[in-house]
Known about the structure:
By secondary structure, the chain is an alpha+beta fold. The protein has two helices and four strands, in the order βαββαβ.
Amino acid sequence: MLRINIKSFQWSHIQKTIYKIDEMICFLKLNKKKIIGLPIKKKLYTVLRSPHKDKKSREQFESKRWKAQIIINSVKNKNMASLFFFLLKNSEFPGVELDISLVKTSYL
């Protein structure tokens, strides 16, 4: 099982990345995939406008981090898996952080 975690500060970048990876999966004819949307992380920052005079005068800023996960059930052909990794490595995904993990299960 192959898991690809996608993180970005804009949802549109994640959608474009999912579309490109989906095209790669269809081109290589790999097994079925699942696309999972993960929770959004929000951070609030509060800054004082004037540190000397008005304590109540403040500004708030927010940053959001969207996440998604693509799961490919099984990759049986090693040549296709290596080609998929090669395509992922040499593709450009602007504004996106990819985390790729390979999960191997055994019946022991």
